[in-house]
Batch of 3 targets.
Target 1
Amino acid sequence: MSQPSTAPGRQHRTVALAAMAGTTIEWYDFFIYALCTGLVFNQLFFQGFGEDSLIISFATIGISFFFRPVGAALAGHLGDRLGRRAMLIATLVLMGAATTLIGLVPTRDSIGMTAPIILVFLRILQGLSAGGEWGGAALIAVEHAPTGRRGRFGAFPQLGAPLGLLLANGVLALMTALTTDEQFLAWGWRIPFLLSVGLVAAGFIIRRKVEESPVYRELKESGNHSRTPLAALFKHHWPLVVGGALLFAANNAVGYMTTGGYVQAYSVNHLKINPTTILICVMIAAVTWLTSTMVGGILSDKIGRIRVYQIGFVIQLAWMFPFFALLNTANTGLIVLGLIVYSIGLGLTYGPQAALFSEMYPTAVRYSGAALSYAIGAVLGGAFAPMIAEALQTSTGTVYSVGVYLTGVTVVGLVVTFFVKERKDVPLGDTATDGQHDEQATVTA
């Protein structure tokens, strides 16, 4: 049998925690860049563009997203052919190397235009890593889990995003508190990037102990694995890729208001809030996001992945404009309140994702399918979300125009949920081959 339900509970938890540890480090690395975009890079690397320096700086976040599908396709192909475990280690090392090197790049005042070019190149490497990382972490956790608890265990790699955000904001808040503005711009911002060396070393040790997925091992032993998983994916399952991408785009655009640094930059540059203060506010929200993500995963085992998604999207829609109204007060307490409720909807549309995306695809193309849905959704939703938000706010003179944009994206995600089938109780091994796509389609025609 392909299901690991008879494996000891300790093994399930060990795998889930290893997946969470790795994604936390990955997202810490990824978010540190995004957070420094509006606080540092616009002043040190893109200052020659005048009033457009902040928008151009945010655009570099989006550029890396276009390389996520490349990373997802490469890691997905190798992950479906060689296994999930090897890709977990490779993507972690790539992300850590790129992040550490960012902390060593000279500024534009030192080496001219070469500085932003190097910075963007290293951000692209981060994008390649992020594109392949999530699929492996999600699958290794879900494919080890018992059928009735895939939502719970699949939520662990999802926790890496709020934990990474919490860690990134915490380290930056500490550095801004311990240094003057001049010191922070001179060298303080580099410390969080250089810390990645130690974090990646710890993650490498943890992930080396993870065994290969039992579902994937059975597939290899049966000889049914695909030699061309990407071709099989797009031949038989392309509607699933599109559906999954639109679901994640609706979550990702909303999430990137904080993870992409827009809220932080808007608060500092327009509301004149102290950087340390707003970073702490986002840290508090990250704890709520963390909790609601875990709740979303657990709840999805009880009432279904789709129902939890729908609840989360409705909360996002209902709270969008109240959130921006509270943010505009520049009152710390009200901003925290706004971010907390905002993060609840975000978590409920993020917690069930690993389980849902894993259940959407047959084992033979599961890594490729889940990773590409995630990566393409990130391009559609998060790639230029901070830049779009900044451009909208600047051109209209009101932050509520950002709310209109995010409302539209969320509506698309909510609509997609009504075309997705619930498969929470279907054993993953029952979808081990890629030739039965008609019976297994998850997105209805």
Note: The chain has one domain: 9-440.
Target 2
Amino acid sequence: MIIEQFKDEFLAHYSYAIVSECEQKIVLIDPSRNPEPYYEFAKQFEAEIIGVIETHPHADFVSSHLEIHQHTGATIYAHSLTGVAYPFTPFDEGEEINFGKIKLKSLHTPGHSPDSISIVLEHNGQDKAVFTGDTLFIGDCGRPDLRESVGNLQAKREELAKKMFHSLRDKMMKLDDDVLVYPAHGSGTLCGKALSTANSSTIGAEKVGNWSLQEMTEEDFVKELTTDQPFIPKYFGFDVDLNRKGAAEFKPQIEKVKTIVNPDPESLNPAIVVVDTRPENLFKEGHLPGAINIVYGKKFETWLGSIVKPAERFYLTAANEEQLQELIGRTASIGYEDFIEAAFVTHTGDVIMPVMPLEYFMASPDDFTIIDVRNENEVKKKTVFKGSLNIPLGELRERIKEVPAGKPIVVHCAGGSRSAAGSSIIAAELGAEIPVYDLGGAVRDFNQAEK
């Protein structure tokens, strides 16, 4: 038996292949949008992919379960409560999948969602591992507030938090201490708030180190779990519904994205936003009118799906062809590839952002309107500038009218990447009336000064 863990570092997502070497068969759990890595892995063992298990309809990425089924004939397994639109076999509490010496057993573990399951792997008659989806993470458990308005089954966060309390204690903690824990996410995901950087653990270790498994009342657990969860990106509800339907095939979707060479700016539709992924210094030196600077980096998908709402058309542009093609694929990982009006490489543009007058700002901060685009829970922990106005980046386009235009504007976040996007959004609206500056990485100096 082999357990192979695959990682999407950008979305902090783990998926799994379970191999029966004696039968040369594979079952996948929570696969990413691009199925090619799983096909290549199967070829290494000359093995057949016979099943794909969805622990729940994921909110933060698009799964390739339907495409894998269509290409390999693999059976898709999910809980019957999910209400899917694709052909599947119910994998409810007590159901089993047997292949080789492996038995996969379904546990219904609601809490992150009403239809969440965890999968216990039994080998040679002993429980060896549990694939916990978004129920139990390393150091944390899944957030309960993503199904209040999406999916076929909706539930209030307090109701799901209570279910999580019991799922962890009545199901997870009943497993043997030496059972390995393999979650669907690691540190960096927005599906929890305090995940470890580790990619696996054991039930015994989690009983010791995971706050959610400690002795406490249900009331205290619910209060802790529902407090200070991360923000919810705009695309999360869209992905839940798309995963319930099953996404279109990855490669054809990528290939049909329209790419253009050296577009005339006059030919672009001014009503369609330009997502410019170049480094912030290049963007500031020259970009297209109305462009938003979502910098190429580890969190591109998260901020694209937080700033641009589902079904909104956008142009995608990058510093070079290699990055452009990569970003088209990463856009597809959250199901946004159909919304790309066209993709192209950009080197400059006619719109220039002013250079931050740092010395003047340090001497006279009251002469500026300071916009803090961090999330509310970050601001609660620490305010960098007194009198600043907090509008989280994911809400900024919708709340742009709240930004006063009486004084020059300085935008900051925690480290510099979000302020590049935030300042570009505000500049697109107010830049013709008043200077808009990005404090960028210089905010770290102010953070240090506060210590």
Note: The longest helix spans residues 157-170.
Target 3
Amino acid sequence: MGLQDLPAVVAAHRQHFPNGFFARLGPRFLCRYYRTFLDGPLAVALIVEVSGVPSGYLVGVLDPVQHRRLLLTYHGVALAVCGLIGLMRRPTVLTRFLVTRARRYLTVLMRSRDRALESVGGPRIAVLSNIVVAEHARGYGLGTVLVDAFLSQARDAGRDRACLVTVAGPNGAGSFYAKSGWRHTRDATGSDGQRLSFFERDLPEVV
């Protein structure tokens, strides 16, 4: 993924996740958010094309703790400004943020300032953050291509496990991940009251 792909990626995100918190902050914030995956050494940003036309994308991180530290260092101010502008323009979203997310975001920020390294001896985890395949390009295995490429990079980076979150039930992609070898670990209710399904997948070394 490159800078030239961001308009299409932002449009796809808003189309497929219209009720998500990041989408509600507006396209400026989304563009800045996806830029954090382009220059991060611990991030993965992939585009899949059909006949030269971008038809899907995937973003993820290979080391969540270190990636968050780098994100705050190099993109924190820009993200905060774009997020604040988005909130001020959308009073309803601002109210929801203060009620459901403000305390958690502040806690994450403080922990990121104090913790620069993963827990010693803990599992080395990669996180698949977002994946979208355009409706006109579904049924051709593009989602599998993107996921397999991400898992390959995670394995090459020495990760022990990959994890992801998707919407629970028929509106989510849980059945796709279950058929692809991912293990469903639990369901939980997210900050917005939506039921979410958590999946994991071990990444054994290829010999």
Note: The first strand starts at residue 43 and ends at 50.
